[in-house]
Amino acid sequence: MNKENLASIITRLYFCNDTKLENKDEYMRMKNDLLALNENEFCQKLWEFGFYDKEAS
Hints:
About 65% of the residues lie in helices and about 0% in strands. By secondary structure, the protein is an all-alpha fold.
């Protein structure tokens, strides 16, 4: 999976329980922030959201 798809998934997971998300700008801002991370920082975010857990595979 490419970095942009992964960033979209992480962003959706982050906002899935946020009822205050009222506009697309907030979503796009977080997604773009994720895409701007270097490879190590991005992998850390993947780790934080459970993408490296055996159960998630």
